[in-house]
Amino acid sequence: MDGPTLTDPFSTAPRWVIASHNEGKIKEIGDLIAPYGLAAEGAAAIGLEEPEETETSFTGNALLKARAAAKASGRPALADDSGLEVAALDGAPGVYSARWAGEPRDFRRAMERVEAELAASGSDDRSARFVCALALAAPDGEERVYEGTVEGELVWPPRGDRGFGYDPIFQPRGEAITFGEMEPAAKHAMSHRADAFRKLVKDVFGA
Ligand SMILES: O=P(O)(O)OP(=O)(O)OP(=O)(O)OC[C@H]1O[C@@H](n2cnc3c(O)ncnc32)[C@H](O)[C@@H]1O
Ligand SMILES: [Mg+2]
Questions:
Q1: What is the enclosing helix (H) or strand (E) of 143?
Q2: In the chain, which ranges are continuous DSSP H helix?
Q3: Binding of Mg(2+): at which residues (predicted)?
Q4: Measured from the CB, is residue 195 less than 6 Å from ligand 1?
């Protein structure tokens, strides 16, 4: 393709701003980008505000967060908007996954709400998936977005204290343990975030 490409601004920048205020995500993204010689700083670490997530899609919110951080920092920014989609709840909590945990965030409460709504639905379909949209934005306005998913089933009660958010109730399809019980490396081999990241890497680094 002719015209400006994203390859240079993103693949040559030594530091990306990770446009997230979620420590669990920042750690996972740090693990994923380390092999590419990139360092990352979380948005809170450089004093950026958390923008209001006004879009109704993961890609829309990821772009909104990446743009805001690139503009405020003058550096390439990577944002992640992600969440849990429960089939029997028509995809809820979806983009509201963080908001179901209330303020301050309490994911025990969010997981209990998922289980309660599932029981109220009367459905015995426990399938769910995690979705992750990763957006890259450069200060000059260039941007790209990639989406990844992982399919699985919901378990109850929650199991494991690794990971973050809804990990203790999510068991990836074909596995016997939840993301909450998994080693970080095992989660990185199959997660929605890793799936989106593989697409980003192929595009930005050609790898
Ligand atoms: O917006 P930022 O600042 O990045 O942080 P956030 O926690 O608000 O993130 P989101 O708006 O993308 O909300 C997504 C929520 O979905 C949940 N989630 C996303 N990825 C997850 C994962 O890998 N494991 C468990 N829960 C996850 C998690 O609870 C997040 O808070
Ligand atoms: Mg958020």
A1: strand 143-154
A2: 7-11, 23-33, 58-73, 107-121, 184-190, 192-205
A3: 52, 81
A4: no
Q: Please state the ipTM of this predicted complex.
A: 0.98
Convert the pLDDT of each residue in 174-202 to its tens digit. 999 999 999 999 999 999 999 999 999 99
- Our answer on whether the CB atom of 73 is closer than 6 Å to any ligand 1 atom is no
- Torsion angle of the four alpha carbons 56, 62, 64, 66, in this order, in degrees rounded to the nearest 10: 180
In a domain, 7, yes or no: no
DSSP output for 148-181: EEEEEEE-SS---SSSSTTGGGEEETT-SS-TTT
Nearest-CA residue for ligand 1 atom 10 is 81
Could you tell me which residues are beta bridge partners of residue 136?
78, 144
On whether residue 6 sits in a domain, the answer given is no
Minimum-distance ligand to the CA of 101? 1
| Nearest CA owner, ligand 1 atom 24 | 167
pTM equals: 0.95
Residue 155: give its domain's CATH number.
3.90.950.10
User: Would 149 be classed as within a structural domain?
Assistant: yes
**Ligand 1 midpoint to CA 81 (Å):** 7
